[in-house]
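> Could you send the Histidine triad domain protein prediction when you get a chance?

Sure thing. Input:
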Amino acid sequence: MSDCLFCKIINGEIPSTKVYEDERVYAFKDIEPIAPYHVLVVPKKHYSSILDVENNDDIVSYVFSICVKLAKDEGFDEKGFRIINNCGDEGGQSVHHLHFHLLAGKKLSWEA
Ligand code: 5GP
Ligand code: ZN
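Output:
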């Protein structure tokens, strides 16, 4: 997707602070972090949202496995962490390329 912000970040057209990359996933620091550790874990393939993921596609479990790996690597397995996906306007999605927020480093509050 030529006009997608996260596709541009993934292909290097827009700079980002990379924390992890493999053939399926790119992870980078959120530009406006809401926690001491706030990373976006993003499939390299463009999906507009979680609604685009077919039942037989393992991308979500793959992304979760990378989130858990990153959390463990940073030592958050003991204190805890949070993985979030926002979908659609009321779900709070602002970038329409599927992504998961990995948050950690403080006691996180909860509201809806
Ligand atoms: P959403 O609101 O769609 O769930 O999350 C989008 C996230 O992308 C937000 O937390 C926002 O701060 C982050 N973001 C938006 N533009 C950029 C950018 O250009 N670079 C980085 N690193 N993060 C961005
Ligand atoms: Zn995209």
